[in-house]
Task: structure prediction
Amino acid sequence: MTITVPVPRPETRWTRRKDARPAELLAAALDLFVERGYAATRLDDVARRAGVSKGTLYLYFESKEELFKAVIRGGLVPAIQRNERLVQDHAGTMADLLEKIIRNWWQDVGNSQIGGIPKLMFAEARNFPDLAHFYQQEVINRGYKLVGEVVELGQRRGEFPPMDTEHATRIVLAPLVFLLLWRHSFDGCDGTRIDPEAYLRVHLGIILDGLRGRPSNEPAKAPRTAADPATSRR
Amino acid sequence: MTITVPVPRPETRWTRRKDARPAELLAAALDLFVERGYAATRLDDVARRAGVSKGTLYLYFESKEELFKAVIRGGLVPAIQRNERLVQDHAGTMADLLEKIIRNWWQDVGNSQIGGIPKLMFAEARNFPDLAHFYQQEVINRGYKLVGEVVELGQRRGEFPPMDTEHATRIVLAPLVFLLLWRHSFDGCDGTRIDPEAYLRVHLGIILDGLRGRPSNEPAKAPRTAADPATSRR
Amino acid sequence: MTITVPVPRPETRWTRRKDARPAELLAAALDLFVERGYAATRLDDVARRAGVSKGTLYLYFESKEELFKAVIRGGLVPAIQRNERLVQDHAGTMADLLEKIIRNWWQDVGNSQIGGIPKLMFAEARNFPDLAHFYQQEVINRGYKLVGEVVELGQRRGEFPPMDTEHATRIVLAPLVFLLLWRHSFDGCDGTRIDPEAYLRVHLGIILDGLRGRPSNEPAKAPRTAADPATSRR
Amino acid sequence: MTITVPVPRPETRWTRRKDARPAELLAAALDLFVERGYAATRLDDVARRAGVSKGTLYLYFESKEELFKAVIRGGLVPAIQRNERLVQDHAGTMADLLEKIIRNWWQDVGNSQIGGIPKLMFAEARNFPDLAHFYQQEVINRGYKLVGEVVELGQRRGEFPPMDTEHATRIVLAPLVFLLLWRHSFDGCDGTRIDPEAYLRVHLGIILDGLRGRPSNEPAKAPRTAADPATSRR
DNA sequence: GATGAATGAGGGTTCATTCAT
DNA sequence: TATGAATGAACCCTCATTCAT
Result:
């Protein structure tokens, strides 16, 4: 019915195809929400950043709250799904799997703006109970289950000793969450900047072997020289 | 307008020595800031909760921002100081010291309202750079240094293997921060509730020995009270 | 962008002869204006109800105000004209004529949506002076003159006693206007619903007996169909 | 508790006692609502007319809708009550009573701004169902009952002939309502202005002669010469 | 002629802040 | 010191109107 002719459209402000708008708006909103928080973000600014007028926002989102929800919904689930597939297909050790998951997750989430969503969610969970519920179902619980399965499988295989898997899973996840929060709050604020690669490497090392290290023969971790992680653990 | 009869009224609301006021106001403000976040907290509510009128707030704090800063400033420093003294006086193993610190900290911070401050600070750090700076100096860095010294000393004494102490310290702290954030956001929201005691115990266990546990013969760590974790985990 | 294939599509929505459009739009607008009032009616809704897009409205009406005026203008004049002809052609008593007029008018106006126009006009007269002027000229004055002539003729013929015809005419009309307003506002709102037939019958009875006086024992007025009112009133 | 000293207060803008404010605000709101209708009335204007800022409105009324409701509530009920008492205490004929009621009502309502409320209510009843309900209960039904009792008593006493009292009551009231609406809409718009006194006199004459029937030969009503109404009916 | 995405002025509402008492 | 009425800037949201397609 509608035929898009290859004529180069002069890109007037409101000739942009409707399909692109929501994504642009969500991107702008994500930026600002992450940067300033929910309340401090003015829809005027979101609109301006997306290059549209304020009213246009309301063609696509019913309210600020709905916009917020849409940002949350679109943001993290895909990254989780990727790792869910990874877990199903993985063949090697659980330690390797954990490393891969962490690496993936950092690539997908840590380096992009959506990594700022958890900060938002922690801040606003009590103000938006239904949204918190949604987030817990779709992000937290799925991520938790994902890692939990790895931990549990590791135990069953004898790779990890028996333990309280529920809490152990949380301990595995906590430093990842912390890193995200840090990056979107204090990081660089005082000159201090956490190097994510190194931080994650150490996290993995500690998770696997603890501060006291593996009494076995090989060195758990070379402090700060940042040996090739693949080497340091084989 | 209101005529104060010269009868000595020893305990009316507004006869209270003014010294108590700031603390009452800060307590009320803390409650609400923690519960709702900075922007969503109305000074009206703070005043009402403190049992004063809105105008009175301005006798003690120049603005909402100043009130917020005062809340943050007053919040965590004392808890840190306690542990700083603990480190200086400690005699036993670093593992024991770590356990004590965590326990203290949970007692002081985890169970009180001030435990909600980190959530606030993460959320608002980018909106209040100077406050973030203060918080980083007075809370984060001091807490970091505190734990960092323990880790480092553990290494020098040979209790811990050599490692990247800076990141290791963060990995030790991250689950503590996470627990605080969780309690003031999602905890109980979905029926899921983290049991702090158990969580911290597992945390300590993992930190010290990792998921893979200590292959040697001695029990990883018997967290004070609890049954042998090996047991408790089936 | 949209390419119309030369296949003759005989009855698509937008192939309709443009002559029908204005009437459809006016009908939709009338419905909504009557239901919600001028300000609360959104052009979006008018367009949707007429099955066109919002922009199309502006092909036919310069503005919301013009649309409103068109609705009002088109509304009642035909009904008035019908009765004007009736008066000219009538042969019998004035009482009969009055009854016929009232009956006609209720048929034409009372049961249709245009009966809601007076409510609109009373509400908006002060906001649209020129429209009020038009309405007064074309509807009120003509209706007034119409009934006034009947009253006056009745007097001259001796059918009615002498009286202040101007106000008497208004008194004749007022209950008719009231009925219209009622139907489009409170009717049925509280369970109370005025039965127009009975109401009009009583009105006629009162008006006539008032105008003519009751010569004494004979039944006031037997409105066409209905059971003898004397009976119907116990 | 609060002692109002007789010192002439310099009448600063916001020293005005809180007690006076609501009435001032309601008066301003009434004026504007009546003049422009509900939607077209801006709270800014209401505030300005009352000599306060917009925010002040919200100290006294939760929303525009509540303000509207308050205007309605305060407006008409007292006038009704006055006539309710009148009915209870009345000793003479029902015709006299009706005349008094109409006269009172015009004094209380017709000449003041609150006479504009019915116009508002008819216009907005469908948009505010709960308000319509309230109005019907507190104003319409009470007024209806008031007049209905007079009519019914007149019948039982033989002063009026038997009739359908329910509708007859409405026919008595309709011209009164009409007059109010007229005054707040078209009156004077086209040069035409209804003289309330004369109009009401004629109304009464018609109603009574209709209700009582003409005793026979005496002239019902001298057209527009405005004979003393007391005379014209005895 | 018809569309519907885009606009932007305008109004209701909130709330930090002020200040006469 | 304490009050709380008053302020007014700011923000969310609506909707009549426009215009490229």
